[in-house]
Amino acid sequence: MPSLSDSVSVLAGVGPKRVAALKELDIGNINDLLTYFPFRYEDLQAKDPSELTDQAKVTLKGTVAVVPVLTRFGRKKNRLNFRLLIDEHTIIPVTFFNQPWLKDQLEVGAEVVVYGRFDAKRQSLAGMKILASANNAMGSIYPANKSIRQGTIKQLVEAAYDQYSEKIVDLVPEPLRDQYHLLHRREMIHDMHFPADDAAAQAARRTAKFEEFYLFEIRLQIVRQQDHTLHGQPLAYDLTALKAFIDSLPYELTAAQKRVVNEICFDLKRPVHMNRLLQGDVGSGKTVVAAIAMYAAITAGTQAVLMAPTEILAEQHADNLAKLFADFPVNVALLTGATKPAARKTLLPQIANGTVNLIIGTHALIQPEVSYHHLGLAVIDEQHRFGVNQRRALREKGQQPDVLAMTATPIPRTLAITAYGEMDVSVINELPAGRQPIRTTWIRSNQVDSVLREVKAELSTGSQAYVVTPLIEESEAVDMKNAEAIYDRFKAEFEPTYQVGLLHGRMKNDEKNTIMADFKANKFQVLVATTVIEVGVDVPNATLMLIYDADHFGLAQLHQLRGRVGRGQKASACILIADPKNQLAIERMTTMTNSNDGFVLAQKDLELRGPGDILGRKQSGVPDFKVGDPVADLNILSVAQQAAKETVAAPNWDDKDANLPLVAFLSTTAHQNSTMD
Ligand code: ADP
Ligand code: MG
């Protein structure tokens, strides 16, 4: 029985070579071909010449007024001229180059439809093609590549539609189609490829976007549902012990922290698997929330791990947590790539037998040699720094531990829905009391001298400063050179009154850690650094940050960097040094000076530069949609998400008649649009 999952090779004229060419366009089966949509249309409807703009590609209908004249010049070049009578007042001269055979198709008095480029000044048409008479349609233009031509794709789509249109059934269930005024799938596919006019094309596109988002969301919701039914371990934590720990903290939790602690603890207790994203702006106090959750897991008799993206950060967490837990029955261990073999050798058995119950580290935590006694909770800090496989590896240590992923990047709706759609989300939406907003200014590089005076003034109050050096894409060697040059300059300027330190990615880890520790201990007052200080580093006495070439960074990244200051009670400042070359970059700089709100900045970044700049270049987790644009079409995306949630939430949804075509379709196209997890 023919079905939309048939390989394209069933079509006439599609042999191994074409199969390979289509594969390059991600077209494997008939459904792929039918949803390989045109990216634009040529308007082939006949127009009135008086309404035409200069150089527009247009279609004109009329009768051939005179015998066409063919002029040859050179061996291969020629020109065909004739006059097209549109109505009694309008005659348009038409010229075709190098298509001499058209002469025979142009009989005087015959009606013809000509597509070409209109010259308004001369009121003439440079002909491109003659259309089959009075063609009232739009010409579809497909993205093509070297191995397969536009016209071939078009023919194949036509053939596929002819042979398979009967097999196209509705995937979006009827009630939703009615509610959102969507077309039937067959109609949508027809009108995407062969619309009668612009309005039909647009209506089809709206339905196509909804369908694409809906199918994507259904898959996410299924994963989420599986997560929730997956047999997780109920962690019976000791509430009294937990309260004692919270009471021991040197500050009162913010209302937002209390709320998310409750959300997390509720999940821990349930026998379902937790997959939760904890979102909170830089400095909102996520670490202590993680500490409370991890302590809960420990009081339930299990182990907890905290995985951080860098050694500096892992070490800082280990120090902080060791202090917080000093009076509690918690055995803290640090495991990173820098852990010495001897220490590692004693540590691994302690992790395996449960003597150590809180393990902090980097990727080292997920190496195969590391096995846990009983892992109850895995916390991932700055989770977008980790790849899919690393996060999965952590999840697969032990019996599906609960997972708490933390991110300081406020997630715009688009990303929350697409990249994190399968996770539950907790948000810390307030900063601890007493924080002062960071004053941000932007200067040009020729004003740096005046800034140095400002730095000195700040240092004279006992504060410290960061100097972030230029970021040169893809080259740590060049970054280091730049950092060293700026380091020399600051040393010459500030020493011996103030001490200057240098930190860059090429240093050995020991070296980096020593430098960070010394800066924290105020052994030097200025730290010149590449972006290695970007995440998480906490030195409350640092109140000034200088960022060189700030226009090379994304907004979300600048916000992260800026978040290294403003962590204590003193007012802090951030100075962006940049000579932006274009309007977009200028807009980014002014946006930074105007907003301290990470959410606003992330949304702006998304609009200006795309998801890669917020969640990391390598894997933003936002799939490539074919028709929908998750940023521009956020409304449709949100509606489709809600609809998908409702579909999957209905009891036995996958047994209902109305959903059967959808369920069948999902089972034949398992891995399209797969997300990070
Ligand atoms: P982030 O969310 O950026 O990881 P941290 O967890 O590093 O933030 O917290 C930033 C600073 O705020 C730390 O020095 C921490 O001790 C402090 N802090 C956390 N919660 C509170 C609170 N409720 N009141 C006061 N200070 C807090
Ligand atoms: Mg943090």
TrEMBL record:
> Carries keyword Protease?
no
EC no. given is: 5.6.2.4
Among Pfam families, the record links this protein to: DEAD, Helicase_C, RecG_dom3_C, RecG_wedge
Q: Which InterPro entries match?
A: ATP-dep_DNA_helicase_RecG, DEAD/DEAH_box_helicase_dom, Helicase_ATP-bd, Helicase_C-like, NA-bd_OB-fold, P-loop_NTPase, RecG/Mfd, RecG_dom3_C
Q: Which reaction does it catalyse?
A: Couples ATP hydrolysis with the unwinding of duplex DNA by translocating in the 3'-5' direction; ATP + H2O = ADP + phosphate + H(+)
* Domain annotation Helicase ATP-binding: ranges: 267-428
This protein's UniProt keywords: ATP-binding, DNA damage, DNA recombination, DNA repair, DNA-binding, Helicase, Hydrolase, Isomerase, Nucleotide-binding
Please tell me whether the keyword tRNA processing is annotated for this protein: no
Residue ranges constituting the Helicase C-terminal domain according to the UniProt record: 447-607
What enzyme category does the UniProt record give? Answer: isomerase
* TM spans (from-to): none
Per UniProt, what is one GO molecular function of this protein?
A: 3'-5' DNA helicase activity
Top-rank taxon of the source lineage equals Bacteria
Q: Which GO terms describe its biological process?
A: DNA recombination; DNA repair
What family does this belong to? Belongs to the helicase family. RecG subfamily.
Chain's role: Plays a critical role in recombination and DNA repair. Helps process Holliday junction intermediates to mature products by catalyzing branch migration. Has replication fork regression activity, unwinds stalled or blocked replication forks to make a HJ that can be resolved. Has a DNA unwinding activity characteristic of a DNA helicase with 3'-5' polarity.
NCBIfam families per the UniProt record, alphabetical: PRK10917.1-3 (NF008165), PRK10917.2-2 (NF008168), recG (TIGR00643)
Q: Which PANTHER family match?
A: ATP-DEPENDENT DNA HELICASE HOMOLOG RECG, CHLOROPLASTIC (PTHR47964:SF1)
Q: What is this protein called?
A: ATP-dependent DNA helicase RecG
Species of origin: Levilactobacillus senmaizukei DSM 21775 = NBRC 103853
